[in-house]
């Protein structure tokens, strides 16, 4: 039995929840994955995984063993990195996850600049607005908007606060009821970003006043910020969007800010990475690069 391979296979089976998924992830046959697990259980003289036709269940001993081998495998990986990255030149591959819209508008150009600085480094970029499991997907680093982390297996650094703007086209506002306070939104078409943690509830502050608005059922809900901005520009309603997405449209008059005296709930942008990656030279270099950029704007 190749002990290191067996431990790696066992870890991915537990994390992905199936032999087939682990086989695909490790580029092995399902039979090879099964063989590694059987040999490991035979060596330990203890069942680690209980299998049924529909799903697998990790035993209590298997769960304890998984947690211990993760630390061992992560330490081995870190030892490798300490040698591989000992030179000044960054090498290897860095897998980065970013939101689709913000990635296109802001992050991808930065990644291109980072690649130019480090020509021996390969980048694998995963663009998605869905919150993914970094450990499961093998992601080194992610950029996400939202609240601070609660997952102890991850680390985060705050990049920037994200100002959000309530806006609509001049055409829409001309043919719609007056909008004098957040309460008037009940009479309007509100365009909704479905992946927001508060998609149907918008919060506003003005000095000591606060209004939390439950939105009416929207005719348009979308999981992409750029599509939301485009729909607002075409006159279909009011959208609450990061200023990054609409700064140019506001300057050119394609959109107008609505209720400018009311502050909307502020979100923040974070850079996130698995805790065992924090000593990686590649990860640290990318974090420093991003922090430098966002402190300058």
UniProtKB/TrEMBL annotation:
PROSITE patterns: HTH_LYSR
Transmembrane segments: none
Gene3D superfamilies named in the record: 3.40.190.290, Winged helix-like DNA-binding domain superfamily/Winged helix DNA-binding domain
Any GO BP: DNA-templated transcription
InterPro entries, A to Z: LysR-type_TF_proteobact-type, LysR_HTH_N, LysR_subst-bd, WH-like_DNA-bd_sf, WH_DNA-bd_sf
One Pfam assignment: HTH_1
GO MF annotation terms: DNA-binding transcription factor activity; sequence-specific DNA binding
Source organism, top-level taxon: Bacteria
Keywords assigned: DNA-binding, Transcription, Transcription regulation
Every HTH lysR-type domain range: 1-59
Signal peptide: none
PANTHER family listed in its UniProt record: HTH-TYPE TRANSCRIPTIONAL ACTIVATOR TTDR-RELATED, HTH-TYPE TRANSCRIPTIONAL REGULATOR
UniProt similarity note: Belongs to the LysR transcriptional regulatory family.
Protein name per Swiss-Prot or TrEMBL: LysR family transcriptional regulator
Source species of the chain: Rheinheimera mesophila
């Amino acid at each position: 039995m190749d002990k290191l391979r067996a431990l790696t296979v066992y870890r991915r089976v537990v994390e992905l929840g199936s032999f087939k998924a682990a086989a695909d992830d490790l580029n092995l046959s399902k039979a090879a994955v099964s063989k590694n697990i059987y040999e490991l259980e035979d060596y330990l003289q203890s069942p680690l995984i209980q299998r049924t036709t529909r799903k697998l269940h990790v035993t209590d001993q298997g769960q304890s063993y998984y947690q211990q081998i993760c630390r061992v495998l992560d330490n081995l990986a870190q030892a490798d990195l300490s040698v591989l990255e000992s030179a000044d030149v960054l090498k290897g591959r860095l897998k980065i996850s970013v939101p689709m819209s913000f990635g296109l508008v802001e992050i991808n150009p930065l990644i291109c600049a980072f690649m130019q600085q480090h020509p021996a480094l390969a980048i694998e970029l995963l663009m998605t607005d869905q919150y993914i499991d970094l450990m499961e997907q093998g992601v080194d680093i992610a950029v996400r908007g939202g609240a601070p982390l609660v997952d102890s297996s991850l680390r985060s650094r705050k990049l920037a606060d994200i100002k959000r703007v309530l806006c609509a086209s001049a055409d829409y506002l001309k043919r719609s009821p007056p909008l004098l306070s957040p309460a008037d939104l009940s009479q309007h078409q509100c365009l909704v970003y479905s992946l927001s943690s508060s998609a149907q509830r918008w919060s506003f502050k003005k000095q000591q006043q606060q209004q939390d608005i439950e939105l009416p059922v929207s005719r348009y809900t979308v999981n992409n910020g750029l599509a939301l901005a485009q729909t607002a520009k075409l006159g279909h309603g009011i959208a609450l969007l990061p200023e990054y997405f609409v700064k140019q449209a506001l300057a050119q008059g394609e959109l107008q800010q609505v209720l400018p005296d009311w502050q909307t709930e502020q979100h923040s942008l974070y850079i996130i990475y698995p805790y065992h990656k924090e000593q990686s030279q590649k990860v640290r270099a990318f974090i420093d690069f991003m922090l430098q950029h966002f402190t300058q704007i």
